[in-house]
Write a structure and sequence with these properties.
Order of helices and strands of chain B: HHEHHEEHEHHEEHHHHEHEEEEEEEEHEE
Distance between the termini of chain B: 32 Å
Largest sheet of chain A: 2 strands, antiparallel
Radius of gyration of chain B: 24 Å
Strand order of the largest sheet of chain A: 1-2
Number of helices of chain B: 13
Oligomer: heterodimer
Number of strands of chain A: 6
Strand content of chain A: under 5%
Radius of gyration of chain A: 26 Å
Structural class of chain A: mainly alpha
Number of helices of chain A: 25
Distance between the termini of chain A: 77 Å
Helix content of chain B: 25-40%
């Protein structure tokens, strides 16, 4: 053997050795990163004149910058904002007037209570969760096979949110209902919500891809860890190795074994035995290259201890690993679980999370704008019995939430200058409705919305140009036309085809998990709202509605504004409307109003 | 669609930033600004190609019957695959089937003598323009996975397509048209669906806009019949006046202003798009050049002509699909299938290339011809062939590409790429390079990772560059 060959051999051996053994240990410094440490509760600072804990944190921070809260928004703005936020629907004109006229100090709290108790709340907030878990009702890929019972999981999420199921239980059931509460097994639809390739020649490859997707989604949904990167190589910036990834995956390794479609429940997870197959690290994410064996374990940076798995009860045919994982995840002192969910609630109420990168709490994510507030909220959640509705109430009744989103004067100008991105919340943020909420709102204001809840999804008609991009017969229109006007969360979610208005307004691809949607502004959006049959039908129904409600032009303009904008028109708006209606029809007038910014932006 | 934040605005951006009120306007603005710094204002380095026409032959055209002649395949036709080739992963059980010789003869063409089969007599006349990459390979024997990979670099769904990445990197040259246009085959959808031209985690503004010939080239381009064009104009004026008032009360929030501009763009598109797809004023000779005067080539010829008109008008990336849901997927009978599909596309593609050349457009337009994979040297059901992702040909022509050459090779029977292999990631890296984009620097931060079209791979095939 020449020297050169010897060196080559030695270095090759080194490579082999490193790849077999080379897991970087977790250092103390790794564990010191803010999101990997248990939240520390700091009581909110005392601020004169501020009672609410959220406001005390925020006002103290603003004061340090010489800033103050903006004044409270007017009542019409407020009820509109909180109605869209909590239910995804605009307030009825009568609800607006009742709130404006209600002088009791409890008036706003009553509105919030009413909205949180409405079934529309769960229908709204379920979609946020479905984005995260990659929910769709078909497999994707070649045949995009329909999962006829997938709606049961969607209904389970809506029901759980409406019933204010404690969040720890919400997590546990989705990960392990089959082990701990078999009657709720439909909750495990979370694990099966992603895309699948049943037609792959290699069943092992299919299983590998599916399990990796499941593991990545669990990591991102519950812990905002971008674990997916680690399936091929050690995470570049976070202390998560490929071994960590496959240890986490090992927790789910049995689920595919028992994956079957239950006739009553649809797809639910069911393991077929207590015995767990040996798991391996897959070198570079390649299913054909198993590396060293690994045992199921938590990510080391969060918990280096052994995973304590309680033995299954009696004759339960399950490994109980997912139960152990779910219980670990919902320990009140878990560094991530509570922080991640309160941050998502915050994001949907305030327009941006306290951690703006709501899907990434790692090193490449952003730092919390108000770390103490985040930790206070994260520790408050278990104190309040993990009740999400309590957290919503806390947030939307805060002074911070009730601020105006527009204004003027010296303090306002200073806020714009010193807090241009509004990270300090010196005012309320303006937001655009999502595609689903735009559709629901159009149906609601025109009196067409069908509020039937739950059950199999509906397929409203689609233009031929859209269905022609699919395989044949992949969009069988629901025969019952009343169903076409149900809420967006009940529109069939085909993985290979996003419903056009949702897609145009940034609904995420259901192959990927998504905590925070994009918000793009494009010409096809405008073409859709201006020219589509849906928009014109909305305008026609709205015109018919206000024609019945009022006979005089001025009153009709009033009614249109009440339905669409929750306010009366100003005199110049009234004049513009009258001038238009001298020549144009009421339908055309309604179509113009539906295409204004005010129709889809919430102050 | 074109991102509106690329548009020039009459008001100073910094002033907007300072004045951005209503909070989320400001948040959105900072997001847009952050987006802007991430968005390449044009290329990383001067690229020879300014635009791309991608002719996608859906279903998988047979390289061994079109571009990659194999004397040994003729010689051993009818015999089983020699054991020396080892085991082959196939979609269907064809590994033990007898080899099948090319179903039409190959000939040397042009000055360069590149061999092209008789399936493509018209394209063969342009042999000296072609760079035939004979050593392409991908990772899946399935259609949708391979369609996704050829378009997005990944066999998994949901990643941004090549056209979206290019639109993101370079934007559009035409304020009234999208940067990335897709013209699907009207005969039927792709396996894997429209995700093939999706923008994945890139903003929706970069996804492919589907266009088609005729009076309504873009979905919702025109008002419903119950609204006349004149009335639509008044509707837009009213909503514009109400928006102006709304905007003024909200510190000229940049996002609201962008939406006002999106309506202006939509309105301009209503006249720009039909003009682009109106081929009635093209000469008779041009129609004949693309085969629009003949029944069998009319449909694809029309779309090829539209592709030229679109890139002339500043569209950055045009993708055409040939083939319905099955398309070029010649499992049963290669001769029958390819006679049909070559018959429908050969003349139009040649016409397009001649036309681009005559107009000087081929100098800065890259044309790509290829499917999601090639086909097996073994037969299937006697006369057909199964999918082959392990070795196949993709053809490049135009800007920055050396014409009249072949690059790389497959083994003696065309089963696997063996020499100067070009993985799909390498192909993408090369295409981006031709456009002046470094595939390692064209990134987008998503879920904590700087994502690339080429993931962690990709080598530019430098020796094909002119």
């Amino acid at each position: 053997m020449s020297l050169r060959q010897a060196i080559l051999t030695v270095s090759l051996l080194a490579v082999v050795f490193a790849s077999a053994r080379g897991e970087e240990p977790i250092s103390e410094a790794d564990r010191e990163f803010w999101s990997f440490r248990t939240p520390v509760r700091v009581e909110p600072p005392l601020v004169e004149g501020e009672a609410g804990p959220i406001d005390r944190f925020l006002v103290a921070r603003l004061a340090s910058e010489g800033l103050v809260f903006a004044p409270e928004a007017d009542r019409r703005t407020l009820i509109r904002r909180v109605s869209f936020d909590l239910t995804g629907l605009p307030p009825e004109p009568a609800e607006v007037e009742a709130f404006v006229d209600d002088e009791s100090p409890e008036a706003y709290a009553h509105v919030v209570d009413r909205l949180l108790a409405s079934p529309a709340y769960g229908e709204r907030w379920a979609q946020h969760w479905l984005d995260v878990v990659r929910f769709a009702e078909s497999d994707g890929f070649e045949h995009d096979v329909v999962r006829p019972e997938a709606w049961r999981y969607r209904d389970w999420v809506i029901g759980a949110l409406n019933a204010d199921m404690p969040y720890d239980r919400f997590v546990q059931l989705q990960l392990a209902a089959d082990e701990i509460a078999p009657e709720e097994s439909v909750a495990t639809g979370l694990l099966l919500a992603g895309p699948d390739m049943p037609d792959l020649n290699e069943p092992e490859e299919r299983r590998h891809i599916f399990l990796n997707g499941m593991t990545s989604t669990v990591g991102e949904a519950f812990m905002a860890l971008t674990f997916g990167c680690a399936q091929c190589h050690d995470h570049k910036t976070d202390p998560m190795s490929t071994d960590d990834f496959y240890r986490l995956r090992a927790i789910f390794a049995n689920t595919m074994v028992g994956l079957k479609r239950d006739e009553k429940l649809g797809s639910v997870v069911r393991e077929t035995g207590r015995e767990v197959p040996v798991s391996f690290v897959m070198t570079r994410g390649d299913f054909q290259r198993p590396g060293n064996p690994v045992e199921a374990a938590f990510p080391r940076v969060l918990d280096p201890g052994e995973m304590a798995v309680s033995p299954p009860d009696g004759d339960a045919a399950s490994s109980m690993r997912r139960t152990a994982f779910a219980r670990w995840l919902t320990r009140p002192d878990h560094p991530l679980t509570a922080r991640v969910i309160v941050n998502r609630l915050w994001q949907h109420h305030f327009g941006a999370g306290i951690v703006a990168s709501s899907g990434d709490f790692g090193h490449t994510g952003e730092q919390p704008a108000h770390p103490e507030l985040l930790d206070w909220l994260a520790t408050e959640l278990p104190v309040r019995g993990w009740s999400l509705k309590e957290m919503h109430r806390l947030m939307v009744t805060s002074r911070a939430y009730r601020q105006a989103s527009r204004g003027g004067g010296e303090a306002w100008e200073r806020a714009l200058e010193h807090d241009p991105g509004n990270r300090l919340l010196s005012r309320m943020s303006r937001r655009r409705l999502e595609g689903e909420a735009i559709r629901d709102t159009f149906l609601a204001v025109s009196g067409q919305l069908n509020r039937e809840a739950g059950g199999p999804s509906v397929r409203p008609p689609l233009p031929k140009e859209v269905t022609s991009t699919l395989l044949q017969n992949q969009w069988e229109v629901t025969p019952d036309e009343a169903g076409h006007r149900r809420r967006s969360v009940y529109v069939f979610a085909r993985r290979n085809l996003r419903y056009p208005i949702f897609e145009a307004f940034d609904r995420p691809d259901s192959n990927l998990t998504c905590s925070r949607r994009d918000r793009s502004t494009t010409a096809p959006q405008s073409l859709m709202l201006l020219n589509s049959e849906f928009s014109l039908a909305t305008a026609e129904a709205l015109a018919a509605r206000i024609s019945v409600e009022a006979s005089d032009t001025g009153e009709r303009i009033e009614r249109a504004y009440a339905h669409l904008f929750s306010r009366p028109p100003e005199s110049d708006e009234r004049a513009l409307g009258r001038r238009f209606l001298d020549r144009g029809s009421l339908v055309e007038y309604c179509l113009a109003l539906l295409n204004t910014n005010e129709a889809i932006y919430v102050d | 669609m074109q991102a509106l934040d690329h548009f020039p605005t009459s008001t100073n951006r910094r002033q907007f930033l300072l004045r951005a009120g209503g909070g989320f306007g400001a948040v959105a603005l900072s997001h847009l600004m952050a987006g802007e710094s991430a968005v390449m204002k044009g290329a990383h380095f001067p690229g020879k190609a300014k635009r791309v026409i991608y002719l996608f032959m859906h279903g998988g055209p047979s390289h061994v019957d079109l571009w990659d002649p194999k004397p040994d395949l003729v010689k051993y036709s009818g015999q089983p695959l020699p054991e020396s080739f080892g085991s082959v992963m196939t979609r269907r059980a064809v590994a033990k089937n007898p080899l099948l010789a090319p179903v039409t003869p190959f000939r040397k063409r042009g000055q360069s003598g590149i061999e092209i089969s008789d399936f493509l007599p018209h394209m063969a006349e342009l042999a000296d323009e072609f760079c035939v990459l004979r050593s392409c390979h991908g990772d899946s024997v399935n259609h949708p996975q391979s369609v996704y990979q050829m378009n997005t670099g990944s066999i998994l769904g949901g990643k941004p397509s090549l056209g979206s990445w290019v639109a993101y990197g370079l934007g559009s040259e035409n304020r009234n048209m999208p940067a990335f246009v897709v013209m699907p085959d009207p005969a039927g959808g792709l396996k894997g669906g429209p995700s093939a031209w999706g923008s994945g985690f890139l903003p929706a503004s970069y996804q492919g806009t589907t266009m088609r010939p005729g009076a309504a080239p873009i979905l919702n381009l025109h008002p419903q019949d119950r609204i006349s064009a004149a009335r639509q104009r008044e509707i837009l004026e009213l909503s514009g006046a109400l928006n102006a008032r709304h905007l003024e009360q909200r510190d000229f929030d940049d996002e609201l202003a962008a939406r006002v501009r999106s309506y202006e763009l939509a309105f301009r598109m209503q006249s720009a798009a039909p003009e682009i797809v109106d081929i009635s004023r093209e000469s008779k000779a041009t129609h004949a050049l693309y085969g629009i005067d003949r029944k069998e080539t009319r449909e694809f010829g029309t779309r090829c002509l539209l592709a030229r008109r679109m890139i002339e008008s500043g569209v950055r990336f045009v993708q055409l699909y040939s083939g319905d849901t099955n398309g070029w997927d010649a499992h049963d009978d290669v001769l029958k299938n390819h006679t049909q599909y070559c018959g429908a596309t050969d003349k139009p593609v040649a016409g397009l290339l001649f036309d681009l050349k005559a107009r000087g457009l081929l100098e800065d337009t890259l044309v790509i011809w290829g499917g999601e994979f090639g086909r097996m040297p073994m037969s299937e059901k006697g006369l057909g062939r199964d999918h082959n992702p392990w070795g196949y040909s993709v053809v490049l022509a135009g800007a920055g590409v050396r014409g009249g050459m072949t690059y790389g090779s497959t083994d003696a029977i065309g089963l696997r790429a063996t020499e100067n292999t070009v993985h799909v990631n390498d192909l993408h890296a090369t295409i981006l390079h031709l456009l002046g984009l470094n595939h390692e620097h064209l990134t987008f931060r998503h879920n904590g990772r700087d994502e690339r079209l080429t993931d962690v791979a990709g080598k530019v095939a430098f020796s094909i560059l002119a």
